[in-house]
Design a protein that fits this description.
The chain is an alpha/beta fold and about 475 residues long. It folds into 2 domains: about 140 residues, Rossmann fold, CATH 3.40.50.280; about 300 residues, TIM Barrel. Helix content is about 45%, strand content about 15%. The strands form 3 sheets. A 7-stranded mixed beta sheet has the order 2-1-3-4-5-6-7, with helices on both faces. Strands 8-11-12-13-14-15 form a 6-stranded parallel beta sheet. A hairpin with a 5-residue loop joins strand 6 and strand 7. Helix 1 packs parallel to helix 5, helix 2 packs across helix 3 and helix 16 runs antiparallel to helix 17.
Length: about 475
């Protein structure tokens, strides 16, 4: 039996990848634990547990935190331990294997690779030739292995190990909103997304695999039988790609589960037929990317390939069906102006968006838009200056005044969408200088409006004093 310790800085919602890998490992007889740094000392837990493997799932911007923590854990253990890194950043930047203390980097999907590694260590026959892995071996040499095919039969995977998270994280366990995956992959190549880089690694793979409908239903039922559950959230990039799957889901889910759910859609894939199926299945809220109101930014820079009319029509169809719409948007894009961002706010209002998420653009490396930003001199500093939080500040080159307005607009964006008649007032408010007073005031206005919209529209659930207290404590403990 190999002992594996996963380390997470904090839990926002269920970490799908870690839960899936844990289920595969436990099914094979290995032992798995989770350390949540926000609520316990991971070094002390590691010293007590004495793992054989310590694993980290990292996004770009969070890797330095985990590098430092990993070195501290290894220094404090009185036994050899293999440290492994997976997730988006290691997948696209496996060269991080050269970082001090990093022993292995997993490129791509992790279930099969981590099981191979655990089995090899357990049998005492470890060789650094396992697919998907880059290993640092004696003398500092790096062994780089090719990737295996993606998991095509997703129904062959065990159900995610939710106990790993729920047994330790009270907020997620008690929450009536829980998160699931019904598919993997996306056929589109938006320039701000890692998706096109993913399919440069998996060159011959179909761009999207679906979990069987019955598998998804069984997982939801398992959770509902054991934990509070009023709203199901599907995290899939695109929930509505395959019509035949959606038809089966719309037939079975309301009969066998009957809970409202949230899913991600795309405006140019929405048809009256698909909207009717979503309504029949029980969707009360969906989200779609609008990203930019300006046609050049949306279609040339971001390669979204959709018109304003398509976005507005999709919003109207959903509104007519009684399905709430949320949207994601990217402010402070390279070559964009403050007027472009205000135009984005207006387009959200025309599409009848019930809550609009607005993020400040971050030029992530390995994305087409990130590389464009760097090569054309739009970025201050380097990729190393990107933080883990994507809505606090912009690192793009522009005047201090415009940068200030774009950062302030991010806090007022959802309010302006809901009340477009306030846009002239918002224009004046965003010109206020950023300081402790304006940051504090605008942050709270943004958070209070978001809290109201999420609980009343996006995820309408029964609010109890315990939920309010638990979520408020969690909210204050979360980074930024």
């Amino acid at each position: 039996m190999t002992k594996i310790l996963w380390v997470e800085k904090q839990i926002d919602y269920e970490p799908q990848g870690i839960m899936s890998m844990s289920a595969v490992l436990k099914e094979a007889g290995h032992d798995v634990k989770l350390a949540i740094c926000a609520q316990e000392d991971p070094i002390e837990l590691a010293k007590k547990y004495r793992p054989d493997i310590v694993g980290y799932s990292t996004m770009t911007g969070s890797q330095h935190y985990y590098f430092e923590l990993n070195r501290a854990i290894k220094e404090n253990l009185n036994k050899p331990v293999m440290s492994i890194f997976g997730g988006p950043h290691p997948t696209f930047f496996p060269e991080m294997i050269h970082e001090a203390g990093v022993d292995g980097v997993c490129v791509g999907e992790g279930e099969g690779p981590v099981l191979d590694l655990a089995n090899a260590l357990n049998n005492g026959g470890f060789h650094p030739d396992l697919p998907n892995w880059w290993f640092k071996v004696d003398g500092g040499e790096v062994v780089k292995n090719p990737v295996r095919p993606l998991t095509r039969n997703l129904g062959s995977l065990p159900k995610p190990d939710r106990e790993l998270v729920y047994s330790k994280h009270i907020v997620t366990r008690r929450s009536p909103i829980k998160h699931f995956m019904a598919s993997r992959g996306c056929p589109y190549s938006c320039t701000y997304c890692f998706n096109h880089a993913w399919y440069q690694i998996y060159t011959r793979e179909k761009r999207g695999y679906q979990f069987p409908v019955d598998w998804v239903i069984q997982e939801v039922q398992w959770v509902r039988e054991r934990y509070p559950l009023e709203q199901v959230v599907f995290l899939d990039d695109l929930f509505i790609i395959f019509v035949d799957w959606l038809e089966e889901f719309a037939e079975k889910f309301p009969k066998e589960v009957g809970l409202p759910f949230f899913a991600n859609v795309r405006s140019n894939l929405l048809t009256p037929e698909k909207v009717a199926l979503l309504k029949k299945a029980g969707a009360n809220t969906v989200s779609m990317g609008i990203e930019a109101g300006n046609d050049r930014l949306r279609n040339d820079l971001l390669k979204r390939k959709m018109s304003r009319e398509t976005i507005i029509e999709a919003g109207q169809m959903l509104d007519d069906a009684g399905i709430n719409l949320t949207a994601t948007n990217i402010l402070a894009l390279p070559t964009a102006t403050i007027e472009d961002d205000i135009e984005t706010m207006r387009l959200n209002a025309l599409a009848k968006v019930k809550y609009s998420h607005a993020f400040l653009f971050q030029p992530y490396p390995a994305t087409e838009l990130g590389e464009f930003t760097k090569q054309n001199g739009h970025m201050v500093g380097s990729f190393e200056d990107i933080g883990a939080i994507a809505w606090d500040s912009s690192i793009l080159v522009r005047s201090e005044s415009e940068k200030n307005q774009m950062e302030n607009l991010q806090r007022w964006f959802a309010v302006g969408v809901q009340f477009p008649w306030l846009i002239p007032v918002i224009r004046k408010l965003i010109k206020m200088p950023r300081n402790k007073v304006t940051d504090f005031t605008y942050w709270w206005i943004h958070k209070l409006f978001k809290g109201w919209a999420i609980t009343r529209r996006v995820h309408p659930i029964k609010i109890t004093p315990r939920i309010i207290w638990t979520n408020a404590r969690h909210f204050l403990q979360m980074e930024a």
